[in-house]
Amino acid sequence: xxxxxxxxxxxxxLYSTGFVLEKRALAALPEVTIRxxxxxxxxVLGSPLWIGGSLALAAGFAAQLAVYRTLPIAAAQGLFxxxxxxxxxxxxxxxxxxxxxxxxxxxAAILAALLMVVLSLRxxxxxxxxxxxxxxxxxxxxxxVPSLAGGVWLYNSAERRARHRHRLPTTGVExxxxxxxxxxxxxxxxxxVSSHLTDDxxxxxxxxxxxxxxxxxxxxxxxxxxxxxxxxxxxCRASLIVPVCTTVTCLYxxxxxxxxxxxxxxxxxxxxxLRLAGIALAVAVLLSMPRHDQPVRTQPPMAAKELTxx
Length: 310
Description:
Elements: H1 2-27, H2 37-45, H3 48-70, H4 73-81, H5 83-95, H6 101-121, H7 137-162, H8 173-196, H9 202-210, H10 214-235, H11 238-260, H12 269-288, H13 304-307
Helix pairs in contact: 1-3, 1-5, 1-10, 4-6, 5-11, 6-11, 6-12, 7-8, 8-10, 8-11
């Protein structure tokens, strides 16, 4: 158990470090856009700092696999949530990103909402909730395809609004929600892949996996998620966009994953109340967060009469 806790804390450090390194690398690169994905990949792959951040994220993924092998998924998610606080601290220290009082309250509320959802999933000593292993493929596609389309549409809408000359700079909430939807679909696909890997025989498991929609959903979300997340990370503060993305991904997986894989809601009234209240709080916070950064105040010009010589 303690190895799992240590691996989760290590994953938090690796993920936060990876995002911060990628953000610093992107700040030194020319502007990237999703309309030129080949150029984006060429630029980031030519940055040693970005490659270092990507390696840190990959190491965090490996540590996350170790966590899931030793801890219940609910307990693991509770530990991963604490990484959001570490990310905000690193962003302030290493990137010089400042968060407003309203945003700090919003991040604290998001953290509380995620913890409420995690507590509603906590397993008891006599066994926890039933973990679903299979989901009908038409249902998965019915859930995932509109989510992917909605995420891409939301991202493109944010891009179009950001190109307006006199528009205030965006905080990145729309970008975070859009990328979070893609990563939420990716989480459902990973869950589906894990269910196929439990089949007897490697050949049969691989054949069944290729016949399912999960590997193709992973390819789509991996390719589009990489391009969209890097462009968004360059434009917006990591201390805001990453927590928003994480919140959307977690809630998407918890809600739609529960329905798709046939996992019933908690029967205990307290746990049910925690789950519903956590979801409602997170959605309310996302809707109330500021969409634009405040412009920097400049010194007003000197009045014309003060410029007139005597």
